[in-house]
Amino acid sequence: MPSAPGLVNPRLPFLFALAARQPCDPPDPLHDLGPRDVADDEGDAQGRAAAAVADAAVGVVELMDRRSKLRQFGLVLAALVLLIAGCATQSQKTMSTSPREPGRGGILHSGIALDSTDPLYSEYLDHVRKRIQEKWGYPCVSANRSCEYKSTSLEVEFGILKDGRLQYMEIMRSADFPIYDEYAATAIKLASPFPPVPPALMAVTPPGSTGIALRGRFIYDGNRQGQQLLR
């Protein structure tokens, strides 16, 4: 029924009260979520957290894998260093038994027999052999209140530098009596210096050699009245 003129519409108080109960601002979705929506958001957050943890775990594994590879590379590198060091040590051991060992003064030659008949250096070897024989003595060995000339032999290697100086000397095979070794070694020392090594003889030595190496066999023959032979 329409209201009479001048009278207040009886519905207005109800409408005002209803309007007063409604918020003026737009609804806040965070406050307007129901229990199911809140549970869904919490599940999404947990999922994202789990994904982040998984990504971090993958990163850690990859980092550990890289460190493992680096560690393996380091072990391989250390093994190579040890291998190279071992080869160097073995090479030094080999050199110590070769003509390159310290004390030979850079003589890289393996040795020429004093009695060689090679026309390239036989003349020079004759000069060296004669000089040694001039200084070589034949001692007698005391036995049963007598002195006897014993039969024995020894082999000596010695090095001569380019200018003729004696660089080294080594008894390769000793005599049966030490005194015969001593007499042979003394003869070589007294015969030095020798004539300079001829260029033709130096040409047969390895490059960089500072001289030549010679081998001589000292023979003591007591059955022939103390005869000595140098070969």
Describe the structure concisely for a colleague.
47% of the residues lie in helices and 18% in strands. It is α+β, with helices and mostly antiparallel strands.
Low-confidence stretches: 1-8, 14-19, 29-33, 91-100
Provide the CATH top-level class of the largest domain: Alpha Beta
Strand content: 15-25%
How many domains, as an integer?
2
CATH architecture of the largest domain: 2-Layer Sandwich
Average pLDDT, all residues:
74
Q: Radius of gyration, Cα only, in angstroms?
A: 53 Å
Which shape, going by the Cα principal axes? elongated
State the helix count: 6
Query: The CATH topology of the largest domain is what?
Result: Fusion Protein Consisting Of Minor Coat Protein, Glycine Rich Linker, Tola, And A His Tag, Chain: A, Domain 2
Tell me the span between the first and last alpha carbons: 158 Å
Compute the number of strand runs.
7
Backbone structural class: alpha+beta
Assembly level? single chain
What share of the residues lie within helices? Answer: 40-55%
- How would you spell out the order of helices and strands? HHHEHEEEEHHEE
Major β-sheet profile: 5 strands, mixed
Word description of this protein:
The radius of gyration is 53 Å and the shape is elongated. It has six helices and seven strands. 47% of the residues lie in helices and 18% in strands. It has two domains: 48-97; 112-230, Fusion Protein Consisting Of Minor Coat Protein, Glycine Rich Linker, Tola, And A His Tag, Chain: A, Domain 2 (2-Layer Sandwich). The longest helix has 62 residues, at 35-96. It starts with 11 loop residues before the first helix and ends with a strand. It is an alpha+beta fold. Helix 4 (122-135) crosses helix 5 (178-191). Residues 1-8, 14-19, 29-33 and 91-100 have low confidence and may be disordered.
